[in-house]
UniProtKB/TrEMBL annotation:
Residues 70-222 form the VWFA domain. This is VWFA domain-containing protein. It comes from Gimesia aquarii. InterPro entries: VWF_A, vWFA_dom_sf. Residues 402-431, 781-809 are annotated as: Disordered. Residues 1-27 form the signal peptide. It holds the Pfam family VWA_3. Keywords: Signal. Residues 783-809 have a biased composition (Gly residues). The keyword Acetylation does not apply. Residues 405-423 have a biased composition (Low complexity).
Amino acid sequence: MSISRFGIATFVLAASALFCCTSVSFAENAVPEISNVGQILSYENTEGQHYFALRLKADRLPSNAHSGKQIAILFDTSASQVGEHRIQALDVLKSFLKELPNDSTVAVYAVDVQCTPFVNEFVAPQSRQAKLAVESLASRAPLGATNLAQAMKTVMKGLKNQETRSILYIGDGMSSAQLISVPEMAALTQQLAHQNVPVHSYAVGPRKDLRLLGTLGVYTGGVVLTDLAEGKKDLPTKVGRELAKAIQAPVFFPEKIQLSDKKLVLNTPQALPIRTDRDTIYLAEGDLTERLSVELSNKNLSGIWKFNVPVAQAVNSFLAVPWVNYQPGQEVGIAFAGQRMMNLARTGHEEHMAQLEFAGTQAIRSGNFEQAAKFGNLIQQLDPGNTRGDTLLKMSNKFKQDQLAQADTKQPAADAKAQPAAKGDAKPPIDDSISKVEQLRQIKGAQMKIEVSNTIEEAQRISAENPDGALGMLKRTLSFVKSTSDIELDLKQQLERRLNSMMVEVRSQIEVAETRRIRQQQQLAQLEQQKRLVDKILLEDEKLEQLIDRIRSLMQDGRHGDSDAYEEAEAVSRVAVDMEPGNGPATAALFTSEAAGQLDKVFRMRSLRSDRFLETLYQVELSHVPFPDEPPIRWPAAPVWTSLTERRKKWAAVDLHKNSPAEQRIFEELQKETEANFPDIPLSEVMTYFADLHNITILINSNDLGEEGLTPDEPVNVSLSGIKLKSALNIILKPIGLTYVVEDEVMKITTIVKSDEIYTTRVYPVADLVISVATQQQSVGSSQGGFGGQQGGFGQQGGGQQGFGGGGGFGQQGGGGQGFFSVGPEMLLMNAPKAKNAKKQPNKNAKVNPAKEELQPINDQEIKGILNNILGQAEVKQPKAQFQVQDNPFRFDNHTIEQLKKKPEIVK
């Protein structure tokens, strides 16, 4: 017996909305006292038999429960895995390996007729060996059929002896190479469950054996995922993530199962594994009281589920189908590995019933009443509560009787005794063909009546769910009745009235359904609006909470010395208040941040004011300290300053642009005189005249003129003589908003706006840009007498007062003095004659001509080095000063001053 024979192949799963199950807790080495209440999916047939579906699921499992760490991956490479199915399977495998944690290990096998490993040992999911295995699978040709039982046995031998082992199968589950019999399936699942090895699977392919994969999953504690319907495609990343989570989820492998009600019979007596991420669904039959409890246990763990028995519902008729072929003590019963599989079972049962109903109806229309009766009996057997099966039986029996009656009318009359001759006035006999036509019309009318009744009954049945389909069915039947001419007119009108009446009723139902739909849409719109409003409020609350947290963090930064944090906290607080005015936390945050910021500013300003006050007092005390002014500050002679000033004029402003010879010639022509006599001459002709006269190239930029609304034909009316070309061009061009630029070795006539956009790079001395030369000379020659004035000679209030050389008094311990160009008072000693040669006093009123002075080499090496670097000369000579002291080069610093203080005498 193959696996396809144990059970009904259409069963896979049930809807979760019709029942719910208790959550359960586990305890080690003890049965916990749990009081959890749930519901059961229930069905009662016409004979009073009850069928149930029990859902068992664990909310949580202890840490010692099984979870997969060592994973054997079986990848189907048979001939059925081609095209999009192969691509989808490979993408799911890659996503699954990517989602696995680093502490997991995997081994990859290719499964077809043989089971071929692609890695020698278990490796990390993101390792190079795993990637090479996936690449090898992608390049392997899909050939042959699948021997799934042999593959499972091969993988079991390769798994290491540890508790955290799992198997993942990716394929269609069609074990076509060798079908798995019921005993083989029972032995295989018992071995896997005994060794705590869950078998997970992802069903993908044109045809899928979900029954086989579901049996492996429910008996070993695995999860079964399937691809979507034809034309759709699962996201590989989503499927891979779900498979990775299923592999890592814990599994409880019970050894015993006990029911509180002994009358209840389970379709499978084995204790099935329990998971936290899917349901384990038992099918049961029997009579139940109001409550039921199920206990599962092994040596280490135990759990109890408690249920409330619900009212039976006719929509759960599919629960009775697995019990049609049930045999007590069967090795492999029917159970469902989660709600998804039961939902597929429900859908398959409903589709199967619809197919049987359609086949029965077609059999009646074709006159095959025996086949219709078989379909009706099968429907009653699989779904006793389905009225369509009774209808098929009644219709088939009715048509059989009509055919028998019609056959009786066609039998010849029995032989009778001879009758005496008729009298002469007897009427002629009526033709028998007329009576036959009448009988046929009656039979046809009866058939039409039954057909109309069935149509009305079917329309009533489906009008609630599909009113448009019911209306179409009635219209087709009405059209058929109207086109029929071999039935009684009264019967025809009666059938038409019945159909029209039913059509009115269906149309009314359509209107009611449309009104209900509109009302539901309005309610949904209102609910959606309320949901959006709630989401908006929640979002605003979350944003406000984030702002408050931000304010709290900024206040903490402010307390640790960040003065700007208080200002930022206040700004964030105002945003929070503007978002929700009157909010308590936001208002309090604004008050606190603003007050803290102001207090921080007050404390900082007070501290700064105290520091500045003390610093000012220190400066006062520092200025009170006397500063000796001997030896004096020495400055270069006046001719040196004059020479420096004259030499730097060339570099007062430097243009980095280097003119070409053509551009230089244009600039030279601009300085030459020209003649201009133009009585209303176009601008283009004027420019041509100047270009020919001065032998230069002049171009008019028509595009730039067009932007200002001008043309090269603008009239020029001037008469000029004896002026430079530059001035003539300015006089001609400026009145019409034009100008000229020298660029690219030509002269261009353009607009003033465009010329302002042309920039050139020029270099200026920074000193001239910051402080004007006039200001420098004034500050040197007057006011505070050079370094006089404030602390004159670095004394308090000393130095020169103004005028010639500063001259001012000594102030408070300040130095005085005079000298040319506001030099320090020490410059009076420069070039002074030696005492032994001083016979005559120089004439103070005599005028000295610097140009006629004899230049002497500068003896001060420091000044000489500065001037040599500036002027680029090897030797710099200086004119004779009025007085000059022959002394060593002097550096003005504290060390020199201290050394000078130790001199016994000073030259005067």
